[in-house]
Structure formats: C-alpha cells, structure tokens
Amino acid sequence: MKHLLSLLLILLLPLYAAAETTAGEAPVIIDRTGNLTEEYHFPEGTPILEIVFPRVYSSDCAIVRYGYDTMMIDASLASEEMQDRIRSALQSMGVTYIDVAFNSHPHDDHINGFIPVAERFPVGRLVLTFEEDYNENTIRVTDYYNAHDIPIEHVGDGDVFYMGPEEDVEIRVLQRNDSGTWEANNRSAMLHIRFGERSILFSGDVENHAQRSFGENPPEGGLKADILKYPHHGQVKLHDPFFDAIGPELVFMNGADQVMTGGKNYLDKRKTPYLIGYTGLTRLRTDGKVWVVDYMHEIYTDRNTKNPEYQ
C-alpha cells in the first residue's frame, strides 16, 4: 500500500506544481464577457482607465475615459445607425462632454462622425494627424469646428499627450510615411495608450506598408501591448513581425462578419483570443495592474428601431 501511495504522489506532483504555478500567476486580462448578470467592481476609490467600443462595424469609434477626462478616437458616419450606436454608447457611459476628438486618418468612416457628435455633445478640441486640407472630409470637419470656435490641434509621430491631473495615462502617437507617398490607410496614426503596467494599441487602418515598417523598425519604446485593436476593421492581413512586436494577449475586431474571416483564422493559428465588436457594448477597464473585459448595459439596444430619445 505504501508503494502504491508513493507512486500516486509521484504521478500527481507535476500536476499539482502546474496548477500552483497557474494559480499563482497574476492574470493580465479577466474576461467577464460571459457573465452578463454580475458586475465586476474595483475597490472603491481606485483610479480606472475605461475604454468603450460602440457597436459600430466596418468603421471606427472608441471612447476613452479616465477620471473626468474623455477622449473619442475616430467617429463613424457610415450610416445613421452607426451614429445612433455612438450616441447610445456615450449615453450609456453618462458622458456629457468630450475633451478630445482624435482622428487617426481622414476617411469618412473615421472622421465625418465628429460633426454629428459635436452637434449633440460639447467637444473641447479636435486633434488631427493629417493636413486640414488633405481631402473633402478634413475640410468639411475643420470648417465646422472653426465655425463653432472649437480649437484644432495637430500631432504627429512621437508626440505624447496625457489624461488625468497627474498625467497618469500616457498616449503616444505612432505614425509612418516612409516613402512620402503612402495613401491614408498606411499613414494612419496609431495610439499606444499606457496606464501603470497595462497598455493597448489602437492601430487605425494600417496596412502592409506601415505594418512592415513598424515591424522592421519598431519605435522607441516598442509596440508591446496587452490588447490590440485590429487594424482596418479586421479585414487586412497581419504581418508576423508587426504582430510579434505587439505580442497581444487579446485582440478586438470590429468589422462586418464576412470580411473578418482571414483575420480570425490568423488569430486562431496564433492562439490569440479575440472579441468581435458588434456582439455587445464592449468595455475594457484597468487599474493599471489588470484588465477587466465585459459588456456594458446599453440603455438603447434595439438595433433596428430608431431611439426616440435621440430625435
């Protein structure tokens, strides 16, 4: 009997050690998207960086909030339905003022929504990464903001700005145009956002040229991020060196289902979990140590009927 117990102990030791190691490791991301009834609460008084993705698809919008500061990254005008979903997300978050409206590049599904947003919510300033006269979209939006006395600022590669009274959240602009002739998607400004030990990379619509440039020549400080916002609505190929430099533990995708097949297959092969934006009002929160991912309760969730509150 003693020999049998010894043998069982020897066989179980590796399993116990593995379980102990796994249990002892602090998670980087806590996925709560499967728990729709129980809210996750950080300790009271904990400073939290919050990122919410409205249920837009084949277009972009993200709302970043830290304390009293709110930034919107891109805004879609793909349809009235997309505009309604952006307003629904803002209302669900209780946002009444947008400090910064940031545009990664001036395609209509990223910039034109800043006019209807500003018609409903006061905006502190518009931040551009392209020339004001780059195309009809930039001219239309800047004309509106100038007419309403909303300041316009310009940023480029390497520029850094912050959120919070103590500049707790660092936001770094990463932008390339190696040949000087790239079209707008490859010239997209990416944003690397860091709070404490945690980080996320918004990759705009960067395609092969920009991905190759960033992969072969990473910026000072690198690209490493816990979470990657998949470029160009999930419909472009990811270059291995670019993806490897980021090394994400989670990827967020917001394209239409039929255009994301290649991206999902790539992430499956890389064994990297991903979330699809239109499945819910996706929320990412971090205290600088751990990310908590869940779906917010959305005040207006009927996708096919106009919400009277927005009329």
What does this structure look like?
The structure is a single chain. The chain has helices at 2-24, 80-93, 108-111, 114-120, 136-147, 208-216, 240-246, 261-269, and strands at residues 29-31, 49-53, 62-66, 69-73, 98-102, 123-128, 152-154, 160-163, 169-174, 190-195, 198-202, 227-229, 250-253, 274-276, 282-286, 291-295. Helix 6 crosses helix 7. The longest helix has 23 residues, at 2-24. It has a single domain (30-37, 44-298), classed as Ribonuclease Z/Hydroxyacylglutathione hydrolase-like (Metallo-beta-lactamase, Chain A, 4-Layer Sandwich). It is an alpha/beta fold and 311 residues long.
Quick summary:
The chain is α/β, with parallel strands linked by helices and 311 residues long. Helices cover 27% and strands 23% of the residues.
Could you say which overall geometry the principal axes of the C-alpha atoms support?
globular
- Extract low-pLDDT stretches: 1-23, 302-311
Q: What's the β-strand tally?
A: 16
Helix content: 25-40%
CATH class: Alpha Beta
- At the fold tier of CATH, the topology name is Metallo-beta-lactamase, Chain A
Task: Describe the protein's topology.
Elements: H1 2-24, E1 29-31, E2 49-53, E3 62-66, E4 69-73, H2 80-93, E5 98-102, H3 108-111, H4 114-120, E6 123-128, H5 136-147, E7 152-154, E8 160-163, E9 169-174, E10 190-195, E11 198-202, H6 208-216, E12 227-229, H7 240-246, E13 250-253, H8 261-269, E14 274-276, E15 282-286, E16 291-295
Helix pairs in contact: 6-7
